[in-house]
Amino acid sequence: MRIALVDSTRNPKFYPVSLLKLGSFLKQNGNECELFIDSLPEENKFEEIWITTCFTYDVPHALGLALEARKRAGKVKIGGISATLLSKHFNGEGIEVVNGLYSGAEN
Fold first, then answer.
1. Model pTM greater than 0.70?
2. What is the residue-wise DSSP string for the chain?
3. Residues 20-29: pLDDT tens digits?
């Protein structure tokens, strides 16, 4: 499966370690992954788009990315601390919210 991993942080100063770790886990399980920083892939290039959120003040920006991602891939997942704390902002939008840690990637 082709999965786009998107860091929704605007102007990040560091690489998203959580996405790098998740990408490594997904690749070990036979998936193809590509990292995007505050941007989305072209339409129909990936089957799924997974977005991470870090800062609660970036939730509106992350929601905008997720809504646009819905147009570009069959499935959109969003996780991270902000999505976990403020999942109500993403519910009902056709976006799967992943609360807490992604099981398997943390082993």
1. yes
2. -EEEEEE--SS-SS--HHHHHHHHHHHHTT-EEEEEES--PPTTS-SEEEEEE--GGGHHHHHHHHHHHHHHSSEEEEEEHHHHHTGGGTTTTT-EEE-S--TTTT-
3. 999 999 999 9
